[in-house]
Amino acid sequence: MSLEKKNICPHCHSANWSSNEYCTHCSGELYENSIKNNDRTSVLLTKLPMGL
């Protein structure tokens, strides 16, 4: 893996060499948030198609 391959985190825009699109800090934060918001999001996603 070459050092030239850098990802730019779309959340905080810092350059990083992680395999994820987001840097380690933000992906951890977003993962925590997705767990907290999981119930609400899944309810919205299941109800949306029926309302259309």
Query: Low-confidence runs (pLDDT<50, min 5 residues)?
Result: none
Q: Describe the biggest sheet?
A: 2 strands, antiparallel
Find the count of extended strands (DSSP E, 2+ residues): 2
Shape, principal axes of CA atoms: elongated
Arithmetic mean of pLDDT:
70
Into which percentage range does the β-strand content fall?
5-15%
Cα radius of gyration in angstroms: 16 Å
Cross-sheet strand order for the largest sheet: 1-2
- What helical percentage do the residues reach? 40-55%
Structural class, from secondary structure content?
A: mainly alpha
List the total number of helices: 2
Taken in chain order, the helices and strands follow as EEHH
End-to-end C-alpha gap: 46 Å
Task: Write structural notes for this entry.
- The chain is mainly α and 52 residues long.
- Helices cover 52% and strands 8% of the residues.
- It has two helices and two strands, in the order ββαα.
- The protein has a two-stranded antiparallel sheet.
- The radius of gyration is 16 Å and the shape is elongated.
- The mean pLDDT is 70.
Topology (elements, then pairings):
Blueprint: E1 7-8, E2 15-16, H1 24-36, H2 38-51
Antiparallel strand pairs: 1-2
Provide a short characterization of the protein structure.
The protein is mainly alpha-helical. The chain has a domain at 1-31.
